[in-house]
Amino acid sequence: MPRIRARLLARAAIIPAVLLVAACSTTPPAHLATSVPANAAETQNRSFIALVKAADQASLGGDIATAITLYRQAHLLDGTAIYPLRRMADMLVDANALPDAVEAYRAAIRIDGRDVAARLGLGNTLLMLGQPALAVGHFEQALAVAPDDLAALNALAVTRDLLGEHAIAQERYRAILETWPDDRRTRINLALSLALSGVFDEALALAEPLAADPVAGPHERQNLALIYGLAGNDGAAAALASQDLDSESVRRNLAFYALLRAMPVEQRLRALYTRPAQAAQLAR
Predict the structure, then answer these.
(1) 96: left (phi over 0), alpha (psi -120 to 50) or beta
(2) What is the DSSP string of 44-89?
(3) Quick one: pLDDT at residue 265?
(4) What angle is formed at CA 84 by the lines to CA 80 and CA 86, rounded to 5 degrees?
(5) 238-268 pLDDT, tens per residue?
(6) Could you tell me if 142 and 166 are in contact, meaning their C-beta atoms sit under 8 angstroms apart?
(7) Has residue 277 got a pLDDT over 60?
(8) Residue of 272, 253, 130, 266 lying closest to 198 (CA atoms)
């Protein structure tokens, strides 16, 4: 396995919401255990348990390189345990080692094809690699196991957007909002889809209240700035972007918005996933 860079790469300012929610984090995802599952703890030896607990602590502390090493050692001790392999894949995503992450997620799925977290991790990593057609099946498999999994529902809708099926994607977002009307991630994803399709009035109606909410963070503000930029309102985009970014980052973002405006509709959303270097970095 190639050497993994120890530091976590900074996120780009312009990233569709589903990536932030369902893809990668130094904190174990909410639907994963933060220690060895009970059945594994009963069957694995003390060294395995100690390695996984140490890896979890390294992950929580942001020490990605150490976490990867420890999860890999735990996997070598017990190749039938899915948890350390899946978490190693999560950490590889955080280290921007996406091809290695794909291999690790696929190995986890060979252990348990019904593992929703591994399916979501693999699907989202394939999206980041610009391979939405390969991601579809993994999100569908996740939903076959967990039909109400909100992350999987959103991920499948985003994938339809990336495949150029914007009307289908927007139908899916609206269907999600019928059940979860207050879900911020879905509202942002729908707003982005509409804006990237040139439907700005509805996109702004969805995104502006989210960005104005007292609990809003940089992600919501920068997505609204993106929508303003796509609509050609560079003044509003710059004013909003400057709340989180320095002047040079704002300048780069405005140039990126201009590039997006010049692209055909079907290329815009993919550009946000596969060309993050063109976007400024979020203040963290």
Answers:
(1) left
(2) S-HHHHHHHHHHHHHHHTT-HHHHHHHHHHHHHH-TT-HHHHHHHH
(3) 80
(4) 95
(5) 999 999 999 999 999 999 999 999 998 878 8
(6) no
(7) no
(8) 266
The predicted structure's pLDDT at residue 274: 63
Torsion of CA 49, 51, 56, 59, to 10 degrees: -170
One-letter amino acid of 229: G
Report DSSP letters for 5-40, one per residue.
Answer: PSSPPPPBS---HHHHHHT--SSPPTTS-SS--HHH
Number of other CB atoms surrounding residue 9 within 10 Å: 12
Token duo for residue 3: 């050497």
**Integer angstrom CA distances of residue 61 from 8, 53, 89:** 12, 12, 17
| Alpha helix positions (H), 197-246 | 200-212, 218-230, 234-241
Per-residue model confidence as pLDDT tens digits over 34-69: 445 555 455 557 889 999 999 999 999 999 999 999
Query: What 3-state DSSP class applies to 177?
Result: helix
Query: Position of tokens 């790469």?
Result: 9
Predicted local confidence at residue 238, as pLDDT: 96
What number is the average pLDDT over the span 175-186?
Answer: 95
Name the amino acid, one letter, at 49.
Answer: I
Number of Cβ atoms within 10 Å of the Cβ of 217: 14
pLDDT greater than 50 at residue 175: yes
The residues near 193 (Cβ < 8 Å, ≥ 6 apart) are 157, 161, 166, 169, 170, 173, 269
DSSP state of 148: T
**Alpha carbon 123 to chain centroid, angstroms:** 10
Indicate the pTM of the whole model.
Answer: 0.78
Residue 66 CB neighbour total at 10 angstroms = 17
Confirm if 17 and 192 have CB atoms less than 8 A apart. Answer: yes
